[in-house]
Design brief:
The chain has helices spanning 10-20, 22-35, 42-55, 59-66, 70-76, 85-94. The protein has 109 residues and is mainly α. The model has no long low-confidence stretch (mean pLDDT 88).
């Protein structure tokens, strides 16, 4: 008797986990937003934002609700993307978040 082995890609497993755990998704977005400030990590941050958007029903649904084309969303959140503030705010709003500002932590002295 052989067992059926189901293979799930890492990306699909990540989408399922983010969809099931909103707090994890919010933490992922927060980390992604912080990495956008670092040119060496910007691509990873953009891809993380894209993954969260995928977890919220797919890029097509998020793009439609945000009022932008799916293609524009793919380009904006690609590794070389450069989303406009309007696009970023629309996507954050669609996934139930908003942009906020906090002070940069400095070492004392």
């Amino acid at each position: 008797m052989s067992k059926l082995q189901v293979v799930v890609s890492h990306h699909d497993a990540e989408i399922a986990e983010l969809r099931a755990d909103r707090e994890l998704a919010f933490a992922c977005v927060k980390a992604a937003m912080q990495s956008l400030d670092d040119p060496d990590n910007r691509a990873a941050g953009l891809l993380a934002l894209r993954t969260v958007a995928e977890a919220w029903g797919g890029l097509g649904a998020v793009a439609a609700e945000a009022g932008i084309s799916r293609e524009a969303l793919y380009r904006a959140f690609s590794p070389t993307g450069n989303p406009t503030l309007k696009t970023l705010l629309a996507v954050l709003k669609t996934v139930g978040l908003r942009l906020s500002v906090e002070p940069k932590h400095r070492a004392p002295g």
